Amino acid sequence: MLCKIALGNVRRVGKDYLVYLLTLTLAVTVFYAFNTISLQVDIAGVTEQNSGMGDLLGGIINGLTLFLAFVMGFLMVYANNFIMKRRKKEFGLYQVLGMSRGQVARIMALETFFVSLVSLVLGLVLGVGLSQLMVFFTASLFKTQIANFHFFFSFGAFMITVGCLLAIFLVTLVFNLRVVARAKIIDLMSASRQNENIKVRNPWLSAAVFVVGVALIGVSYARLLQDGLPYDGQPEAMTAFLVTTIMVVVGTILFFLGLSGFLLKALQAARGLYWRGLNMVTMRQLAAKVNTVSFSMAMIAMILFLAITSVTAGMSLASVMNESVERGTPFDYTRVLVYFGPQAVAEENAYAEANGDSTRYAVATEPIDLVEASKADTVGEGTADAHPFDVSQIAGGHVQVDVYDSTPLGADAPLVTLNQLCDATDMEMPSGVDSTGTAELGLGVVKESVYNAYLRYRGMDEIDLGANGYTIISDMGATLNDIYNAALAQGVEIDFNGHALRPVSDRVNEEASAFQNAMFGMNTGTIVVPDSYVEEANLPLYYGYLMVDYADGISTEEGDAFINELRTYHPITNDAGEIVAGWGSEATRTQSYESVDSMNGLISYLAIYIGFVLVLACAAILTIQQLSGVADASPNYRILAELGTPTRQIMHSTLVQQAIFFVFPLFIGVAHSCVALSVIVKLVQLFGGFTIGGAVGLTAFIFLVAYGGYFYVTYLMSKGIVRDAIRARHSL
Amino acid sequence: MPVLTQQARHAAGAAGVAGAPVLDVQHIEKIYGSRSNVTHALRDVSFTVNQGDFVGIMGASGSGKSTLLNCVSTIDKVTSGSVIVNGEDVTRLKSQQLTKFRREQLGFIFQDSNLLDTLTARENIALPLTISRVPAKETLARVTEVAGRLGIRETLDKYPYQLSGGQQQRVAAARALVTNPAIIMADEPTGALDSKNARLLLESFETMNRTYRATVLMVTHDSFAASYTQRVLFIRDGRIFTELRRGGSTRQEFFDRIMEVVAMMGGEGSDAL
């Protein structure tokens, strides 16, 4: 019997439940589809190149799902409250007719259960379908080929989804039971009349609050643009950033608290406009609702801001890597040797002595031939065919660049620093570099002949420094290169160990600056000077770079296989047996590309997942609020109709109200994002050209369609509610 | 502007063309339900209301008095017959024309005041004018003037929830009056009021009727309220049972005559009316 009533109720109040159902179904769909990620990367062939990727992504997504389940749970409770508010009277009636509270509670539990069940089934069907499609999306994100596509169903994802839904169901149930258990029958019965307690704020006060909010937002924008992000973790910077964050949050809340009052005052000032058509009704409806919704509008603006910023920044970062990897990987294989500097040698020796270790370290006096040094690695150590790692077996050509530290042996200051260049060119130290030690660090130094050998190897024009010339190379982004370019263009004179050097070129040649394969620029600034000055300055060796291209007969696969064979490394020693250097990173071109593709895919995937769910949640909250608002105001719409207002005009008024509720949070969210992104752009430019575009545009479009879709659905549904209200004849 | 033409008519009425029929109801029928379950809510009802009349309609619950008001006010559709307002048969109007007609020719007052809870009294009264796009200056002047006549000028900047029931009804009356409609329809306007507030409201109606020569059609089951009118139509079982005119008699005499008819129809005390 209770079951029958519950089913009947779901059918009868279907319209109210529709929003709930829609949101829950979407949540289930998205949950399931994204939690199948580990299976998807399998099918998309991502794991073939990067075996850890599936687990990594799966793990991150599972963690995120928990967070998002929380968001969704909150949303569901909210959606449910909307339905409950509408039906208090009905539940009161059941009790008046003699049902016990337990029975009423059971009816409600059954209703929630039915709706949850329906959304689970619908959502799973959609989710399974979506996840099949998403395999193709995943493959394109990770730039892989789908080897054998087949239908798949993830039991793990299914369990997670059901678990989340169950949790949401239980929380909702507890809330609902509380409503029934606590409420007195008289309150339930008069619930519809209780809704109409309208508190009206003083519009002048609201307008003032609005102005304060705008001012706070403006100041926080200025502060952020001025200070940048506190990524270096300095306590003062963190405090300043915290203050800015609090300002923008408070500003946003005040903005929405005062918004309707401000609009009301502004429109009232234009008398002809205010006393015209339904304009005053529209404004008053907005002002009446603002008490209940302004806080959530502020929340939504902030969530939209987070979603937009993370998606845009994430996807743009991915595109930076895509671009810079082209520039950063000019060779088939590169290997880096790191020399021990005088300070490191002293520390290591002291440490070894203290521990009774006989190992001793020393500063290298001569550059080490990296091809020869590589032979110290053993391939297949301990096996019968153990042999040295001889790069020349696959190398068609190779070149070596040795970089010196610009602090001479025995000296305590570098010959050339970034600080010095900034002062000379009157440029600001870029944020992110100042207040850290890097500014004081010197630039690397390369001999003219070595750099020319590098240029020759790459088929580029050699440079001639003459007797007193220099140039700077770097493959970092605009932030650093702007300074170097300015120094070169302005002909800044450098005192290099007593020799006055002048630039021979007027800008950094970024294309001829990469010494190793990497996703980002790695050469943060190296000065090229005539050979004799380097020798004379008695500089210690810093890095050795080996750059190799495979021989004509060797395919990329063969070369990569040769490089990737399991090897044992050994430290590099001098004739006296003292350790002078250790191996740094090595990378084949293929590895660089793959890690970029994987990183790209990972970032885009997470950005879209988080962004999509958050935007969905925001839109759903707005929809529910708007629909409940329209339902609350439907007596007013009926009065308007009876007074002879054309239906079109009434619909127009609701449309304007809803547009304000949907557009303003979006507008504020986008404004916040623009400011935040402009700061992030500056930071990322350190690593290379940063552009927002391409994939971001498409994603933004999809989000906008989803958000707009909710707006449209809201409008259509509220049109229905208004029409019903108008049609209901006056019967008292 | 429609409002201007109404003013012209208003002026004409004031000049003494009283007696011209504003409303002419001819043989209207209203049938509810399907073939198996038919309710005859109105059977062949005909009457006329002249410019400046204050007419009451009385009847028991279910007698059809509210249906009659709804049909005349075009909120409901008649099954047959015609309702002619100022020479125009409103039963033939399309829905858009109906909306326009309601806006320009009718004023409504309901049992619960039906004010918009989000608007101040001033804005509520102004609403019909702003919907008709009357200029702001004229709107505000008319609102103030009407509110002054009905004694609610000091409440203009308050919200409905800050007003008493009687004040709310008088605001609703001002809203009905502000457009100078051809007819003001009042459906149990005193139904939710205590006797003091009911009296105040009915006196406002008399003011409207006398000073603005507004034509008022009031449905009520309260003999006291009906005694303020000039003429009472009694409805029973969907038909006009009888009609009383006040003529030169005092309100008290008229009240006694109404009570007689009510008693004859079934007795007010038995809650039949």
UniProtKB/TrEMBL annotation, chain B:
An example molecular function term from Gene Ontology annotations: ATP binding
Keywords, sorted A to Z: ATP-binding, Nucleotide-binding, Transport
GO cellular component: membrane protein complex
InterPro entries recorded: AAA+_ATPase (IPR003593), ABC_transporter-like_ATP-bd (IPR003439), MacB-like_ATP-bd (IPR017911), P-loop_NTPase (IPR027417)
Pfam families: ABC_tran (PF00005)
ABC transporter domain location: 23-262
PANTHER family: ALPHA-D-RIBOSE 1-METHYLPHOSPHONATE 5-TRIPHOSPHATE SYNTHASE SUBUNIT PHNL, LIPOPROTEIN-RELEASING SYSTEM ATP-BINDING PROTEIN LOLD
Family per similarity comment: Belongs to the ABC transporter superfamily.
Protein name, per record: ATP-binding cassette domain-containing protein
